[in-house]
């Protein structure tokens, strides 16, 4: 048996690895289970105080990409700052930059009254304390922006609008499995830099046209057996079902034994 997250990977397994469909079982994405269970530990005012943000205005969360994926984060941040600095200070949204933990560029060079880097060196969100900080960054943000990052999956679970720029320069770092996210049509895509500013302004104004696509993506990509059912539990019970001589599709029977 081959266990995979979703139907996308079923198709890859059949096409690329010559598995038979009958030997593949879709369990969902266990690694993302914590994001469905976590809740804020700080209120918005407390989080803004911790990160240095002005709590009176919304903030844009910029999620950094791995340098092995793209090195164009800096270019997009510069363009975003150039656009926002033209807005009156009392109406200007803040920017919270979360660097990728493996990116060597020191993002703190961008900090000013309305641009903050938090945590300063990023942080791997795979432990309870670091995940909590990351979650609150997502939870209290108004919109999430990036080039190519798995953070778009985290943002989708937290139900936040996502925006990326796919001009000729950025597209070089937006291949591989990022195409699944694009095909799901839940990320707002700007083809020109002027377009991304219009999208951001619209989203900050409360117009979220990709909401239903985003929620559908979460159901199909990470929890195809039910958004309220732990993928880890399904996988564990499916393994037990196979061990008891049944098919993994009989995972529900293990709950009652």
Notes on the structure:
The protein has 257 residues and is of the alpha/beta class. The chain has eleven helices and eight strands. It has helices at 7-17, 33-37, 44-51, 73-84, 128-139, 151-157, 178-183, 193-204, 211-222, 231-243, 251-255, and strands at 2-4, 24-26, 59-63, 94-98, 115-117, 143-145, 162-165, 187-190. The chain has a six-stranded parallel beta sheet, sandwiched between helices. Helix 7 (178-183) links the parallel strand 7 (162-165) and strand 8 (187-190). The longest helix has 13 residues, at 231-243. The relative contact order is 0.15. The mean pLDDT is 90.
Can you describe this structure in just a few lines?
With 257 residues, the chain is of the alpha/beta class. It contains 11 helices and 8 strands.
Report strand order across the widest sheet. 5-4-3-6-7-8
Helical residues, percent: 40-55%
What is the succession of H and E elements? EHEHHEHEEHEHEHEHHHH
Q: Runs with pLDDT <50, length 5+?
A: none
Given helix and strand content, the structural type is: alpha/beta
- Mean pLDDT, to the nearest integer, reads 90
Main pleated-sheet profile: 6 strands, parallel
Which helices and strands, and how do they pair?
Layout: E1 2-4, H1 7-17, E2 24-26, H2 33-37, H3 44-51, E3 59-63, H4 73-84, E4 94-98, E5 115-117, H5 128-139, E6 143-145, H6 151-157, E7 162-165, H7 178-183, E8 187-190, H8 193-204, H9 211-222, H10 231-243, H11 251-255
Parallel strand pairs: 1-2, 3-4, 3-6, 4-5, 6-7, 7-8
